[in-house]
Amino acid sequence: MAAPVSLPPDVSPAVRSAPVRSGSGPRPTLRAFLLRPFLLPFALLLGVGGAVVLGVNRNEQQLQLVSDAQARMLLLNDLNTQISVMENGERGFVITGDPDFLAPYREGEAAFQAAVFALHDLSVTDLQRTNLARVQALVVRWQEDAARPEMAARSESLARAARLVKQGEGRDLLNDARDIMAGMRTNESARLSAATVASQTTLTTVRGLTVSGLLLSLLLLLLTAYRVTRTVTRSLTDLNTGASDIAAGQYHRRMPPSPVRELAQLGEQFNVMAAAVQDRAQALQESAEALRASNAHLERSNRELEQFAYVASHDLQEPLRTIGSYTELLARRYQGQLDERADQYIAFTTSATQRMKTLIQDLLAYSRVRKAPRATQPVDTAALVRDITADLEQQILGAQAQVSAPNLPVITSSPELLRHALQNLIGNALKFRDPARPACVQVSAERTRHAGQDCWVFHVQDNGIGIAPEYHERIFGVFQRLHGMDEYPGSGIGLAVTRSAAEQLGGQLWVDSTPGQGSTFHLALPTAAPAFPPDPAAPQETA
Question: Which end of the chain has the least Cβ crowding within 10 Å, N or C?
Fold first, then answer.
C-alpha cells in the first residue's frame, strides 16, 4: 500500500485544486504553430517553380527561333543550289544541244519556286522579304533575258548562242542574286547565333535559380523543422516529466508553460488531474485501510465458518449414530409388537437417520477436500484408477459395467485431491447408467493447450442417461440434484467436491453431454503443479 499522500508545506489547498495558468496573451494553435513557419519556404519553392516554368517557356521560344533560323538557312542554301542546277542545265543544253539537259533546268526551276514560297512564309523581317523578292526578280530576269534567248538561239546555231553567252548578261544577274543570298545567309546566321546564345543563357539562368532556390528552401525547411521540433519536443518532454512525477506520487507537481495552445491546455488538465488525484488518493488510502480491516475480518470469519462446518459435521456423527442405533434396536425388539403405524414411524426414522448420516459424511468430505493437504508429488494415475476401481468393485459388479483406463500418465499433483476428483467422476458414471444397456466407462488423458497453458486433460466418458444442456452448470453446485432419492441415491454434493478439488489443483472441470447418449467429464490440470501456500488455519479432526 502506498504511503499517505500529503501536500508540501508551501502548497495550499487553493493552489492544489486550481489549474496553473502560466504566461499571458493568446497562444497559437498547434496547427498554426506547425504550419506558419513553413510558409516562407513554401513561398520560395513556389517562386522557384514559377521561375522554372517561365524559363522553360522562354527557352522553348528561343528553341523555336533556332529551329526557324535553321530552316531558313536550309532554304537559302536550297535556293542557291537550285540556281546552280538551272544554270548548269541551261549551259549544258547550249554547249551540247542535247534536250536531256533541259530536264534538270525545269526541275530546278520548280524547286526554286517552292523554296521561294517556303522562305517567304518563314521570313521574319521586311528586309528579308525584300531581298527574297530581289533574288526572285533577278532569277526571272536571267531566265527571260539570258537563259531562254540562249536556248532558243542554240536551237538555230551554236555560234549565235555562243555570241549571246559571251555578252555575260546572264552571269551578272546570277552573281547579283548570289551576292544577295550571301548577305541573307550572313544575317540569318547572326539570328541563329543570337537565338542559340539566348537559349543557353536562359537555361543557365534557370539552372542557377533552381539550384539556389532549392538549396535556400531546403535550408529554411531544415531550420524551421529544427525550431518546431525543438519547441514541441521540449514541451512534450516537460509534460512527460511532469506526468511521470505525478504518476510517482508527486501530486503537488505542476506543469511548466507551453507556447502552444493545445499543449498548454493539456498541461492545465494534468494540473487539474493531479489535484483531483491528490484528493482521491487520500480518500482511497482511507478506504484501503477500511477494506484491509474488512478483508482480515472476512478471512477470519471464513476460517471460523469452515472450522465450524468441519467440526459440526464431524461431531454430529456421534449423536446421529446413537439415534440410528436405538432406532434399529427398537425396530428389532418391538417389530410386530406395536401397531402398524408405529412400525411405519420407526421405518421413517431409520430412513431419515440414514439420509442424515449420508449428508453429514458428504459435507465432511467436501470440507476435507477444501482443507486437504496440498503437497504435490508424482502420481501414477493408472495405478490410482486401479485403486479406485478396486474400491468400487461391488458397484461395478452390480452394474455389470466395464471400466477401461488405457495409457494414463504419471503427473505431478496432490494424490488425495486427484483421488477425490476421479473417484467421484467414475462413481457418477456407474451410478447414472442407462438401465437398457450395460454401463461402459472409459478414462483417458491427453496433453494439450487449455486456457493458455500446457495441461493434462483427463476425460471420463460413459454411456449413461446423459444430462440436458441447461443443467451442465447447475450440477456442480452443492446439494444440486436432478432426480429423486427413489431414482438415484446420493446427496448431490459429489460434483461440487470434484470441482472444488479441480480448482484446488489449479485446473478446471466441465462436461459435454447429450441426453440418452452419455456424458464426458473433462478435468484439465496444468502440467506445472501450482505452489500451495501453507494453511495454518486448517481444521484438525477430533476424536
Answer: C
CB 78 within 8 A of CB 111: yes
Q: Which residues pair with 523 in a beta bridge?
A: 458, 509
- Measured CA to CA, the distance from residue 292 to residue 536 in angstroms comes to 20
According to DSSP, the β-strands at 440-450 and 453-462 are antiparallel
Query: CB atoms < 10 A from the CB of 385, how many?
Result: 21
**Phi (first) and psi of residue 22, to 5 degrees:** -100, 150
H or E stretch at 22: none
Say which DSSP state 249 is in.
Answer: T
C-alpha cell at 132: 527574297
**Angle separating helix axes 39-96 and 102-122, nearest 10 degrees:** 160
Q: What's the rounded Cα separation, in Å, for the pair 518 and 439? A: 10
- At what angle are helices 261-315 and 169-247 packed, to 10 degrees? 40
Residue type, position 1, single letter: M
pTM over 0.85: no
Residues 436 and 413: their CA atoms lie apart, in Å, by: 38
Query: Is residue 93 within 8 Å of 165, Cβ to Cβ?
Result: no
How far is residue 370's CA from residue 310's CA, in Å, rounded to a whole number?
A: 10
Nearest-10 Cα torsion for 312, 313, 319, 323? 140
Torsion of CA 420, 421, 422, 426, to 10 degrees: 100
**H or E element that contains 447:** strand 440-450
Per-residue pLDDT of the chain (543 residues; tens, 9 = 90+): 444 444 444 443 433 434 444 444 577 787 777 777 778 877 888 888 888 888 788 878 888 888 888 888 898 898 889 888 888 888 888 778 788 888 888 888 889 889 889 888 888 888 888 988 998 898 888 888 888 887 877 777 777 777 777 776 778 888 888 899 888 889 888 888 888 888 888 888 888 888 888 888 888 888 888 887 887 788 778 777 877 777 777 777 777 777 777 777 777 777 787 777 777 777 888 888 888 888 887 777 666 666 666 666 666 667 777 877 877 787 777 777 777 777 777 777 877 777 677 667 666 666 666 665 567 899 999 999 999 999 999 989 888 899 999 999 999 998 988 998 999 999 989 988 988 888 999 999 999 998 888 999 999 999 999 999 998 888 887 766 666 565 666 666 778 888 988 988 889 999 999 998 999 999 999 987 665 555 544 444 443
Helix (H) or strand (E) holding 483: none
* Dihedral of the alpha carbons of 124, 128, 130, 131, in degrees to the nearest 10: -160
C-alpha cell at 138: 533577278
